Hints:
There is one protein chain. Helices cover 31% and strands 27% of the residues. It is α/β, with parallel strands linked by helices and 228 residues long. The strands form two sheets. A six-stranded mixed β-sheet has the order 6-7-8-3-9-10, sandwiched between helices. Strands 2-1-4-5 form a four-stranded antiparallel β-sheet, with no helix packed on it. It is built from seven helices and ten strands. It is globular and about 50 Å long.
Amino acid sequence: ILDLTGVTKRFPGVIALSQVDLQVRRGEIHGLVGENGAGKSTLVSILNGVHRPDDGQLKVNGVPCTIGGPSEAAALGMSFIHQEPTLFPHLSVTENIFPGDMLKNRWGFINRAEATRRTRELLTSLKLKIEPLALVRDLRLAEAQMVEIMRAVSKSVQILIMDEPTSSLTDTEKQALFDLTASLKGQGVSIIYVSHFLDEVMEICDRVTVMKDGKRVGTHIVSELSKT
């Protein structure tokens, strides 16, 4: 579903990425690991359209494309979950799932009842126990991250990029997140899971790409690896 070939990105005085290849299969959880400065964040920024590669090619569903910004990434079916949620704290869960795109009735007015019903359906499908009308500011961090994932799912996400999503979560909250990623995988969503925590990568990822000094060291099947 995602194919990066020979991607290179230069900044003044440094080569952040050098001839990086990355292939992500449909419906897999693909780990992306490496020390600070390995190039993971630059690669994610290219996928999000924040930076454009100087060389190389990017394909989504086999079609070559360039990503000029987050809206173009979203149009290609990509969504991003960062360490800190990017939600509107003073709005409800439902309003955050449909920001600027609230469902309307035949008279053109916002149909809050239908939006709430759709939100409840999403919550049920993802086995989440969150109240649709709850304000985001009253949620725990883990619940806020779940809402961000719900927002992505509501827009038919194909590729979900998660950047260190568990850094501030308890063990119980981490397990809830892992259960949700497994559910999304079962629905055919591809997940790129960026993490420093090898235990997590070994637990939930199908394959992992290792980066160092802006280069891809290799891509491996997780079940064939050990942490050492």
